[in-house]
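In the lab's daily routine, each protein ends up as an entry in a very long ledger. A line of letters takes care of the sequence, but it says nothing directly about the fold. The three-dimensional part falls to structure tokens, numbers that each stand for a local backbone shape. The outcome of that step, for a single protein, is printed below.
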Amino acid sequence: MTGRLAGKVALITGVGGGIGATAAAMFAAEGARVVGCDLDEAAARRTEEHVRSAGGEITVMGGVDLGDAEQARAWVDRAVATHDGIDVLYNNASTQRFGALDELSVADWDFTMRNELDLVYYTVRAAWPHLKAAGGGSIINVGSIAALRGVEFMPQNAHSAAKGGVVALTLQLVVEGGPLGIRANVISPGLVETPNTAPMLADPPERMRRIVLDRIPLGRHGQPADIVNAAIYLASDESSWVSGANLVIDGGGSALG
């Protein structure tokens, strides 16, 4: 690693596993002082131990429900108290429920909005005055290709709507944050292998293989590092004139329409 994030305080949500755990490790390896959180306290502690054993600097809060505005604020305030500021907010955490439009319950719709859109707003709202006081910083929100196109292999109406909201919110953050030195960008992943998707990718249904995996021009699904490499760029000073971008990382699949 090259120290691209040396000295930066990076807040990362959902560090208990998958892309979030990889982000915590890679950001710390690049010199960031990482402050992470996750709803799963045991998983958060495992990530903390892993990063520290590799020599990284990290503080983790477990049992944090970011869908609760007060818990989101408490996590951000603890980060500020620990490191006297914030440079990066990486909104990685999300949880969703799927179902056909006429089958998905209102409760499942509300759950998805709370855990994919509301939690982004709550963390940004809590971090905003600290970024403003510091003269700027980088907000990285995670969208999805589902916000940009229909998805054929499974019904994702709530997920698509929530991630579309994340994209729209980010664009407004660009406008409001620009004069304050605050940058905001989106990363929109395609199909990435995580603990949740690994069983499906090990033996993919024929329909998913035919209309998704076989149509990725680069010939493979994504790995967490594919996403985190982009996040490191957006967190670093290398992207100091990048704000309002939606970086689609899907092996070229969305180019096929």
